[in-house]
Structures are given as structure tokens and as C-alpha cells.
Amino acid sequence: MLFRYLHLLALVSVAVAAPTKTASLAVAQTSTDSAAIASAAATALTRSPTSNVKGKAFNRLLTIYLENTAYENAIVDANCNALIEKGVLQTNLYGAGAPSLPNYVAPGSGDIFGVNSDSFILINKNVSTVVDLLDDKGVSWSTYNEGLPYTGFEGFGYSNPIEGNYARKHNLLAHFDSVRFDQNKISRLKNLTFFYHDLQNQKLPQWIFVTPNLDHSGHDTDLQTSCSWTRSFVEPLLENTYFNNETLIYITWQANNEFHQARNHVAGILLGSAVPQKDKGTKDDVFYTHYSDISTVEANWDLHHLGRWDVGANVWKSVGERTGDAPRPWNSRIAGAPLEEYYWNQSYGGVFSSTIYQTNTYVAPNLKLERNGRTILPLVRHIWEDNCRAPTFEFPPGRYCLPDYYQDIIEVPDAVHPPKGFEVDIPLNPPPPIMTPITIYS
């Protein structure tokens, strides 16, 4: 039987280089009491930074993640089909794990860290994210979360009687201490109403992530509801000359909701004025994962990388044609199996894995990787350049070094083909979520 517990300050550094001194469990602003919500909302700091950093293929990216729909179902809905006809349909895209949460951790940071539940996880401050890459180049960003009671709310969920229900697991950046403990960053994790405010005032950032509420995403409803909402949200933006100026819109589904019964095959749709006319109404059969979200951003703005699975992930083809990033086909020799034998429908092991037969540890980024001239983010190098210098919870003081499995490849692992030492039970159904903050699953 699994023993669940919370690690206090002494354990925050579990298997992480240069551990931070701030306790990860210092979670504020979680009360859902109406009076507490009103008080916090009245004083919450909200920022709307802007910038104009020229990209090679687009100057603005808006991403929408929807919920729990297999590829073959998404492409036949009438409303989603109306959007597909205006852009590019990605036919060979796969999620990162199961259930929902790993598919948000992956495009945020370049790995899933063993997440196989929708628990209240706190990812150590030493793990950098996509917004660290953007900040390094001065590219403005914000996330907009429908139903979020106020900017900076850190609770597990919120029943919003006006805007629909919110779930922390779908808030892309809320899981990372590197965001939570930075006031400048957490002030940009906003409610969706701020999107319309920023749009009206022409103060939208260049990188945008939109999370619909649990109804509009399809999580608590169905595909028809989510596609209808998405079409109603996107089509006016396509007609807005301020917004749709060298802009790329990306719509995808975080997972297919089949867990171990089927491959985690989902659809992706590219829209907007940044899509070349020749590509509109076409299909893109290149192999992608949710890590391609990061690699495409890195390629477009010539950013550094995180040293994780973002490095090798294929850049979206219509973008890569303008950045010099040619797509690579699946290599069965590297993968050890053909593409058809990879599922990505449950998570391999790691610090947040519920499997008891593997080590709950972080993995050090690969600082040596280089992709098309893009190198490791200096911040990441500074944090991780000597990952052997600190003792860990599992190992006594000494020169134990964290594992390092990242390569410049597209063939990312799944639970059936895990990195060595990160094996899990097959099949492994997602356990019930732990609804209080944890820094390790054990």
C-alpha cells in the first residue's frame, strides 16, 4: 500500500541540484471561501506586459488545450472541422502521459517527471519552464484561465458560479515553484476575462496560453460543447486585425482519455495569418508530441532550450520551413520499436510516480545538447552545472549524480519503453489525486 506524505523544508531538495532554501509547501491563496476570494481578488497583482520581438514565422502564438478526445473523434465534429478547413491539421500528434496533468507539465517544462495522477504537485524551483526561455529573450507572455477566481490563486480547484469551474491541473504553469515564488510570473497567471481586457486595450502578450473552464474544455461535458466554444472564441479573433497580425493559433487536445486501452493520439490545428496560404486546408503527417510546443517556440524566436525533451522534438512543419528546422522521421533503431508500438497513454516513472518499484527522483537536464544552433538556457546551466554537489533524500551524502536521460531525438519514452530505472507497472491506472500539496509521491 502506498504511503502518502508531505515533505517539509528538509525534503524539498529531493534529488535536485542546488536545492532552493524556500519551502515548496509554502502554498498561499488556496481558500475558496467567498469572503477570502473577494478579499484576495481585491488586492491581487495582475500584470499585462507587452513586447514586439520579431519571430521567424510568427509574432504571436495563442495555444488552447482541450480535454479528453481521441483524434478520430475530434476531426469529425462540425465546429472543429470548420476550423480545420481554415488551417493545418496535424495527423500524427501524441500526448505525453495520463491522466490530464502530465500533458500540461510536458509542454510547460519538457518532461512529465513521472506524473501519473492529477495530484496537487509542486515541482521544485530548480526546474525551469518555457517562460524562462521567453523571459530570457524579452518575449512577453501570459496565461488566461477561465474560472480562475483571481490572479495568483493556488487552490486545487474552484466552483465558479459565473464563469464555470476551474481546475488547477489544467493551469499550465501553476505547478512550478519557479513560477509560484516569482511575483512577476505569478501575476501573469490570469482569468480569461483579462484576455478580453488586454485584447480591447491592445495589450496582449506575444505568447498566450488559454485554458477553458471544465465545461468549455470538454472535461465535464462533451466534444460538441468544447468544439462549439472553441469556434466561437477563435473565429472572431481571426477577424480582428490587431490580434491576427502575424499570429499563429494552436488548438489541441491534451489526451485521448483512453489511458492504457489505446494510443494517446490527438489532433492539432494551426490557424491564423501566420499560416502560409499554401498550407491552409492541408494535413501535416509529421510526428509531433506536446514537447513540440516548446521546440517550435524556441525555433521561432531563436531561444535557448531547457535541455530536456524539448530539444529534439520536431518543430511544426510550417514553422520549421522558415526556421531551418527540418522534420525528422521516427527511427525504430533509436526507439527500439516502431512508432506503432509506442502508446504514451500512461506515464513512466519519476519523482511524482505512484509506482513503488522505482526511485522517485528528478532528472538533470542535458547541458551539452545543441539543436540548430540553439544551446542550453544560461539559467539552467547555472542551476545544474554541478548536479552532484548535494546529498539527496534517497542517498547518503556523497557524489551521487542525478540521472540524465535526455537526448536530441524525437523518440521520447513512454511507460512501455521507459528510461532505464524508471519502469512502472503495466498497465498502471491513474491513482486518485492527492488534493493537498506534495513535493514527491511516495
Looking at this protein, list some descriptive labels:
single chain, 442 residues, alpha/beta, Alkaline Phosphatase, subunit A, nine-stranded mixed β-sheet, two-stranded antiparallel ribbon, 13 helices, 11% strand, disordered N terminus, Phosphoesterase, hydrolase, signal
Mean pLDDT score: 91
Alpha-beta content class? alpha/beta
Low-confidence regions = 1-24, 390-397
Choose one word for the global shape.
globular
Subunit arrangement of the protein? single chain
CATH first level? Alpha Beta
- What is the domain total for the residues? 1
What is the share of helical residues?
10-25%
Radius of gyration: 20 Å
Task: Describe this entry's structure for a reader.
By secondary structure, this protein is of the alpha/beta class. The protein has a single domain (9-28, 48-384), classed as 3-Layer(aba) Sandwich (Alkaline Phosphatase, subunit A). 22% of the residues lie in helices and 11% in strands. It has 13 helices and 11 strands. The protein has helices at residues 34-43, 71-74, 78-84, 102-109, 130-137, 177-180, 183-186, 193-200, 223-238, 292-300, 317-323, 332-335, 378-384; strands spanning 60-66, 88-94, 141-145, 157-158, 166-167, 189-191, 207-211, 247-253, 265-271, 282-284, 288-289. The strands form 2 sheets. Strands 1, 2, 3, 6, 7, 8, 9, 10 and 11 form a 9-stranded mixed β-sheet that branches. A hairpin with a 7-residue loop joins strand 4 and strand 5 (166-167). Helix 3 runs parallel beside helix 9. The N and C termini lie close together (10 Å). It comes from Periconia macrospinosa. It holds the Pfam family Phosphoesterase.
